[in-house]
Amino acid sequence: MDWDDLRIFLAVARTESLSGAGRRLGMDASTVGRRIARLEQAVGAALFAKTPQGYALTAEGARLIAPAEAAEQAAIAASEATRRDAGLTGQLRIGAPDGCANYLLPQVARDLCRQHPGLEIQIVALPRVVNLTKREADMAVAVSPPDTGRLVVQRLTDYRLHLAGHSDYLDSHPAITDLADLKGHRMISYIPDMIFDRELDYLSETGVESAAITSNSVSVQMQAIRAGSGLGIVHDFAIPFAPGVRRVLPDRIALTRAFWLIRHADDRASRRLTLLAELLAQAIRAEVARLEAQVSASGHSVA
Fold this sequence. Notes:
- By secondary structure, this protein is an alpha/beta fold.
- The protein has two domains: about 5-80, Arc Repressor Mutant, subunit A; about 95-303, D-Maltodextrin-Binding Protein, domain 2 (3-Layer(aba) Sandwich), CATH 3.40.190.290.
- The protein contains nine helices and twelve strands.
- Strands 3, 4, 5, 6, 7, 8, 9, 10, 11 and 12 form a ten-stranded mixed sheet that branches.
- A hairpin with a 2-residue loop joins strand 1 (about 50) and strand 2.
- Helix 1 packs across helix 3 (about 30-45), helix 1 (about 5-15) crosses helix 4 and helix 2 packs across helix 3 (about 30-45).
- It is elongated and about 75 Å long.
- This is LysR family transcriptional regulator.
- Keywords: DNA-binding, Transcription, Transcription regulation.
């Protein structure tokens, strides 16, 4: 059985479409379809059933997943063995929530690419949990550890969040000296029914029941705060990127959350991915510490 056909089979299984697999593999959908048909002829069974939602695995297709992934790991190991002394090269796709993706990973990617010029880093910013089983990314940063799946989970670092507002807003509205004062202010937060992880439910920490402006994106929330639209809970590591934004009641409203690095269990056999995971973890820890230290030292706080 041709490994290249199995590679295409895995791409279709993970994306559930010919076009999605084609984009991932750099080939057109019709070519993907022909290769799947060839593989089905070789095994003597249909591997996919076309449904309104896309291409679903048949029972025969599901049985082929494990041996195909084993072949994939063997191919990766063989590739690494031929370039062991060539440094870290090739593509690394990292999935992350948009706070991490916008405010941490650009600097982390810059430094890793400087250290390893042959490395290509793709940052996938998604307002949901990245699906590693479908290989949406090689590894993912999450705000809580998953409780299902064949995954390797590593705690990265704690990070801090505070209530914040822009100086323009704070200077033109009544002073805030206590939690009770917040009821007279506009709040900015997540769209309640689009909170994909319980760790992101920040509004309850303020004692305010609803927000005037909401978004499923941390970056949009920060831009609304920068525009002077109201107050919101923000990552301390994002504040250095938002001139004029100051923490409010930092001694009364202070949250601590954690980032977790998640990998597919099969990738433990990959020396390259293991080393990249170690470097990524070190870099994220260092960048969170660097940015939070800036906030502590610069006095970005009121009240």
